[in-house]
Amino acid sequence: MTVEYVDAGEAIDQGLLTSSPRNAPDVAMSVGYERLLDARNESHNWLTYYGAYDGQRYSLLDEINTETVQSIGPAWIFQAGTAGMIAGASTYAFETSPLVVDGVMYISGWDGWVWALDAKTGEQLWRYKHAVPYDVSLCCGNVNRGCAVAKGKVFSVTPNAHLVALDAMTGQKLWDKTTGDVRAGESATLAPLIVKDMVIVGSSGGEFGVRGHMDAFDLESGEHRWRCYTVPKPGEPGSETWPADGEAWARGGANPWITATFDPDTNMLYVGTGNPAPDFDGAVREGDNLYTDSIVAIDADAGSIQWHYQCTPHDVWDYDSTMENILFDQDGRKMLGHFDKNGYFFVLDRTNGELISVTPYVDRIDWGTITRDGKVTPRKYPDAEGEPVHFYPGPAGAKEWTHAAYSPRTELFYVPVQDVGATATRRRREFREGIPYWGAGVQVDADDMRGSISAFDSKGEEKWRWRNNLPMCSSVLTTAGDLVFAGTPSGEFVALDARSGEKLWEFQCGSGHHGSPMTYSVDGRQYIAVPVGWGGWIEGFLPGMLGAGHGSALIVFALPNIPAMR
């Protein structure tokens, strides 16, 4: 029987189904590489995903500080809302980090949404909705972590592995490029990064047995510049860490699904790579499996790997190393700080990948040990078919993708910690394209869990700890006001003293936090913005809260706006 192809027709333009004026101020045209290099000094703006290329998530704004933070309250709220069916057989979450350019805010959301708002009032200026197929394969939630802005365009990736460029004034689509093979299980979730005249993105989908890669596109035309695969093919350096026979390398994972950091002096992108595939069945991929679970330095112009450091060789615990690589300088040395899923804090020389120090940052680690010279010794892992093995931390890690922050004022790192274990039972499965390739059944502990915001110096010494009875699952923001902001799974948004960890302020947002707060100012008034929308891969990091309310709001806080006396 022959089945004819039926054209589904054009999707409805969601941008038209709104009263938005579709006319934002022309503020993005002047954003280019030179401004991004100096992004931190434009403290009224938040021009790029981490606030600056170094990934520190630190702002120079200090109107809101340890003395004034008790007085802040909601200035405005944007309700993103949900409409119709959402692609993928998994939940959505509001995991974004907004950008602000001279009074205009740009936000991306799940399922291909992008919005432009007035950063002072929250008024919607335009919106865009990408037409995402309902049956797209998604591992860990229908999510998007942010957008990029440059040369009059807003760039965002979509769940079905596209990179779109939108007109920053109207939200109209200018170009659309495919970044991965959605049929094989590839998707895209990260915030693009603008470097020079390129848009840099990375692939998602390691749980489907795909081969990870980073890609660069021409900012103006969308032309593909380069692709860097994060698993070597036979004959390339690192290929000896994969089985010589078969195609384990071709479905090896190592997806770089979190935005890279960048050092213009070294001209290197610093990116973390994801787990090997299958996640828990290491017998079908003997060897260290480079460049999975690694910190990789990539030449920004050529797209070639310059050095690597592997945090978890031959991973059988699902310990992605995709988490941010924070760049900082100390004692005349260019360094990089990385809090890995496996529970260890790595500090490297970012010029050559040399290990400077490695120390644990969570209380319970029993999967294995890493000595101070970097030697890894596994101790507990699911190597026998059908036999359950419990280990700490669980597959969501001692820290999930959500980001740590670093303050040059205090010289401390602030990390959201998850102290929760899991049980994995190996279940061998044959590889089939587009089908999840886990290699085990996994049950994350539903009790006996805790979390914290913990402060560490660059030598790994813990300076203070703010404790929470649930794992901390959202990114951290720190400011020159000596504050640390973070959200809890139960909805509290808190401000801590950056030097002592004392809680100074709290606001119940009505839904759990799983995104990235940021700060900016308009007309001299400082704002703190936090996306609120619990969801995503909850069964992987906090299954006891699967039934909690989703939420889908951006809440923006400020000090009272007291009119001047006449």
UniProtKB/TrEMBL annotation:
Instruction: Enumerate the GO terms in the molecular function aspect.
Output: calcium ion binding; oxidoreductase activity, acting on CH-OH group of donors
Residues forming the Pyrrolo-quinoline quinone repeat domain are 46-356, 472-528
What the entry lists under SUPFAM superfamilies is as follows:
Quinoprotein alcohol dehydrogenase-like
Annotated Gene3D superfamilies: Quinoprotein alcohol dehydrogenase-like superfamily (2.140.10.10)
> Does the keyword section mention Metal-binding?
yes
Q: Which UniProt keywords apply?
A: Metal-binding, Oxidoreductase, PQQ
Q: Which NCBIfam families match?
A: PQQ_enz_alc_DH
Q: What protein name does the entry list? A: Alcohol dehydrogenase (Cytochrome c)
* Organism for this UniProt entry: Saccharopolyspora dendranthemae
Q: Give the Pfam families listed for this entry.
A: PQQ
PROSITE patterns reported in the protein's UniProt record: BACTERIAL_PQQ_2
Signal peptide limits: none
Q: Write out the GO cellular component annotations.
A: membrane; outer membrane-bounded periplasmic space
- Tell me which family the UniProt entry assigns to this protein: Belongs to the bacterial PQQ dehydrogenase family.
At the top level of its lineage, which domain of life is listed?
Answer: Bacteria
Q: Which cofactor does it need?
A: pyrroloquinoline quinone
